[in-house]
Structure prediction request, 385 residues.
Amino acid sequence: MEEGTFLEWLKKEGDVVRAGEPLFVVEGDKAAQEVESIASGSLRFAPDAPKSGEVFKVGRVLGWLLAEGESAPSSTPINRVGEPVTESVPPSVAPPAAMKTLRQANVPASPRARRVSKEHRVDLTTLRPTGRGGRVRERDVLAAAARRVTPETTGMREVPVSPLRRAIAARLMLSRQNSVPVTLTCRTDATQLVALRQQLKAAGEAGQIEAAPSITDILVKLTGRALREHPLLTGQWDDDRILLPDTIHIGIAVDTAAGLLVPVIRDVLSSALVQIAARSQRLVAAARAGQLTAADMQGGCFTLSNLGGFGIEAFTPIINPPETAILGIGAIIREAVPLPNGHVTSREQMTLSLTFDHRVIDGAPAARFLQSLRQLIETPFTALV
Prediction:
């Protein structure tokens, strides 16, 4: 994390703060988190403390915790070990934007060329200089600006990339670079699954249960049962070994206005279905309100992604690193199905798409997992007793 968005102070200036108390809220790539104080003292804000919604760099001084009678520093802030706090970043760990600025500053160029490059957003390091001694001139910048394809010249508009979108893109690339993904699909009869869901929904409307489980909630529980029989799908590749978790925690992909988030439902096997439903509803609501914590999205060993609500029948889900597998859930569609006696009836059909890392598990064991899960889905009343 190189920067965050400041949301709000949880204490007022002058408040006495104790170690461990929430001090302020900061939003990172995927979640907003309360930051606890690491010491006790009277709170004083820095003169340039960020306002709500302001993006600030890691390492910036936001304020001070002062002992009784102590005054806030009026000059260079002092850190906990008594050394001046500096804003410099070593080149080895400097963020990409800072490195780019440094490289441009080192390019020989005239003052007019530098000014024009900022106006036209032209990277000086990409130009072929025509000035004496390899110096970039103003005309070099203008020529590059004229050749460049921009939203203005194409009639397109720019959409800024949010920190969450960058985080999602980075994780997708990590998944692509660090796994050997293979996808298997199968069809399953979801008639009894739908019947169970209808009964649970009616029980919820009648007040017989606190939270009526959704199709996804039921599948989380059934998937946990199947994973218990096929534990390699919960593993993590770790160079010369495979790590298996002691407890099954399952992530559920949640579509939000900001982007895709994956909160984790913990201890699926020992949790009742109504408990899973209550946790799921809380996590989904928190995700869509931007209130998930980092802890809410950590520790998963398998992920479910349900696109059935969009009418998608089958798709290729992408593994959520460092996990080994992800299950895609398609739409439930009523179709004509031939019976062994030659008659035709209508049944609820659903497609399951399992993407797994072939380094950890082979195709046949992965297929057996799908067989086990399909049997559980087709007889959910028995499976959940």
